[in-house]
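Our collaborator T.R. sent over the components below with a one-line note: 'Predict the complex.' Nothing else. No constraints on interfaces, no templates requested, no preferences about which chain binds where. So this is a plain run: every listed entity goes in together, and whatever single assembly comes back becomes the starting point for the next discussion.
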Amino acid sequence: MQFPVISIIVFAPLVAAIIMLLMKEEAKNEIRVVALTTAVFDLILSAWVYFQVYMNPTMEYQFVEKVDWLPALGISYHVGVDGISTPLVLLTGIVMFTGVLISWGIDDRPREFFAFMFLLAGGVFGVFVSLDLFLLFFFYEIAVFPMYLLISIWGWKVTREYAAMKLTLYLFLGSVFALVGALAMYFTNYQLNGVLTFDMLEIEKAGFSAQFQYIWFLPVFFGFAILGGIFPFHNWSPDGHVAAPTAVSMFHAGVLMKLGAFAALRVGIMLLPEGAKQWAWLVFGFAMVNVVYGAFIAFIQKDMKYVIGFSSVSHMGLVALGFSTLTADGITGASLQMFSHGIMTALFFAATGMVYDRAHTRQIPELGGMVKYLPWVAITFIIGALVSMGMPGFSGFVAEFPIFMGVWQVSPIAAIIASISIVITAAYILLVVRKVFYGEVPEHFEGHITPISILDKIALATLVIFMVALGTMPFLMVPMVQEGVNNVLRILGGA
Amino acid sequence: MSLNLLAIFPELLLLILGVLLLVIDPFWKKEDRRVNLGWYSAGGLFAVIILSLIFARPTGSESAFGGMIRYDGLAFVFKMLFIFAAALTSLFFMDAERLQNRAEAYLLLIASTIGMSLMASATDLVMLYLAIETTSIPMYVLSGFLLDDDRSTEAGFKYLLFGALTSATFLYGLSLIYGFSGTTQLEAMGGFFGTFNPVSLGVLFLLVVGVGFKISLVPFHFWAPDVYQGAPTSVAGFLSTASKAAGFAVLIRLLMIAFPQMAVDWQMLLAILATISMTLGNLVALAQTNIKRLLAYSSIAHAGYALVGLVANNELGLNSVVYYLIAYMLTNLAAFAIVAAFGRVTGSDELRAYDGMSRRSPYLGLAMLIAFLSLSGMPPFGGFIAKVLVFAAAIQDGWYWLVFVGIINSIIGVYYYLTVLKYVYLYRMEGEVEKQNPIQVSRPFVLGLSIATLGIIVVGVIFSPWFGLAEFATKGLL
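Returned assembly:
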């Protein structure tokens, strides 16, 4: 048996969470060290997996592990990565690492904070690598419930209770609808082929009737896409972002929303391809609303976190848009966008958190001149803004360009309309940059703004490096993703 | 050992244990040594489980005592569950001041367990009725055990009155069965009651009333909130788990053995009962401010979820019910145990009293988190897989609307379970004095709670052995 690297990546955070819960409450620094060690360990392992897949990109799943879990019902522990999920595993590793660095200063029960955060991280890793439908749901729910605690306990006092509950109920609702769809697939597969199995590679070959797929695509796809922030179920997401503590916002927008989009692709599109073809227009339409409406709403927000929250809605709309084209370009772009947006938005939230911690306000009109005190934050935020606008040379361009190519193939008019969003994005994000980081420093901030710590700088720099690396050297990721997308296209074409 | 002896092996041991406890009690002169009774009781109960597993495991399904009881997997698995619950409850008794040193409390607990064990194995109407009464009467006394507490007395009396009423209804149903079919043996009446027959329906309904009371289904649930609130908390925990599971054992056997041809009727009847139990239980739970009442309504809702598996009336359905009961038993025992310990320290069962609990005792808070997330059906806890299994069974049989109802209810459930966790984790005590007010718990309590919480996780992560147990229990029933 080969070295079970995927399992180690998934279970390391869970084990670390248990270890931390068993440690003494007062040993705050030791707890932080355990958290950081685990995060670094996971980041190294996920980078190693990434490198291996990069060296040998195939359509097949790699690092596959399969162990029977409940054989009587065909539930197995079956994990593996392909070209689409490998970047997302790396993304989770990066966000986890930077998240720990940025949360270093949390003083209220850091033991529970890091334990819950790592539970969440373990769940997220688990979903990205699951090849068994039951396992996917198992990890999916594990990723959802710590969110509630993290937001409601350590979040922004004003809205945290409301936002946490809203988020949990939305996501739980989506997941149970998707679960019913999954169970329907499971039993229909049993009727058709006489095998009880949750294995997605088996269900892929089930040969569901077209009508079955038309019916069940909607609950399954939209059930997951709720977590991806798709219109009209996006409402929980900006509220959640705003209420969450910084590291959790990073996780939430950076990784968790990708979870929804990824599961919608993996389960919705790949297991029900006929349904995807049938309903592509609907997804396309909603995603268009996401992209354009999200950008407009972001434009009028006064709170920095709300700006970024709605920009996430807009950018995640691009992901859904890319999927819904069902073209090679569109899906490739969407997969790249998941990675690019994850890093970018983590950076935005990290930077916003740093500003807020010092200025105690996120209201854009009240801020100004931060570049003088927080040059690192300002510069990295500007780089993030360039990514957000899709500037060539940054990861955003590499991701969004193929999406628009895909959309053009489906409907040139839609591509033109969607591209308006880029202009609006440029407008709102530059507005934030100008108001917050340049201009006059309000008087009462003089002398109160302390510089950021070395840990914060490491976190920001890490994020920037990945954005620039992907932007200037797209060959580091694109071939791998294309192989993954080929597998999706094979299913779409062959069904 | 002869077959008859093997069939009641656990009950015999339980009886010996109960008598032993009663005998050794007066020999202790010093009051404080009596606390050890709980250790003897719990240890004895665990020993009964081990001995039964070694000597009395059934290999097939055999009739014993002239058809009075059956010696099969269903009976055996449920017996082990009841005894396990009683063992944990003994440990929790040791943390309750007015139960810990009273031999009769442990004896009543064990007597009730004997009744439940017989409920699970009875295949004769007379035996069934006797078993149910043997279960109930000790529970009436235990509910009203705290004589100087009005609420407890009220709970005991209320439970007695409701119990007597439904018991009479049940007995009436039994007499009708005997009158029509001419036999008291469940197996012998297998083919007698046909479908869509008003008489059969009437009989069925009377029986469901009797059992519905035990498992607190709406509309036979009225006793549950008051009794749970008034009774000593660890007794309420036992009532809401073992007693409920015993009801399910009876229901499974009755429906599968005596009414197989009326499946269409009772499926619909149970589907309706499940719907209103889930919906009413969850909706009313939303409005509760007392945690024991909240748990009472939640247990009503959970009876509804478990019933969904029975409605499916297929192999997976039966297995899922057993699995659900295993997971639910561990979860609710843990939840009630925490409430008991916390109530003992703070003297209040109001939700507001839980402010800052996780800061006062992080591990108790964590156990609460695990129990309540399991109740709301989150992985990696037992409640998740249990719910998935019952819903899966219902989907297999095409009960999509019922699953839909269940889903909506699960979401309502998530809301109020998380609300409780908000008190535990988020809110603070007045003046933020949590550190000065830690919660002390006794060693046996810690042991019992650790077993229950670890059990919740084990059941939620490692499925095969428990599912195998469920399969063993339901083999040959369909």
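Summary for T.R.: The CA atoms of residues 89 and 475 of chain B lie 29 Å apart.
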